[in-house]
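This protein record is not my work; I was only asked to verify it. The record follows directly below this note.
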Amino acid sequence: MVASISYPTVYNPIRSTSIRWISKKWELLPAVIGTFLASGLLHELIFYHIRSQKASVGGGSSTAFGGVCGGSSMPTVGRCKADVEARMEIISFINFVKGLNLATRKDLLTTS
């Protein structure tokens, strides 16, 4: 639910605006960081209304810091093709589990 709200309200507008000034390679970075900053701000607002206390630096800043770290690691992931490697590992694992499942079924059929 959060993604369905944050994409049209924060992520997409920042991405479409940043593409005018930044190359296509870096267009996602401000959108990701902006989404996390908005999320941190909204967390602080929710905590303020629930607790009726002054906002602390802990909740919102940790969310914003996570966004900055995640956004800054995106170009590195794309450069070293870690996403491709991760997909290949996941496919290999799924095939391995399917193979175990088939082997177990064959053993059950032959022993009974």
Notes: Residues 82-111 form one domain. The mean pLDDT is 75. The CA atoms of residues 20 and 27 lie 9 Å apart. The two ends are 48 Å apart (CA to CA).
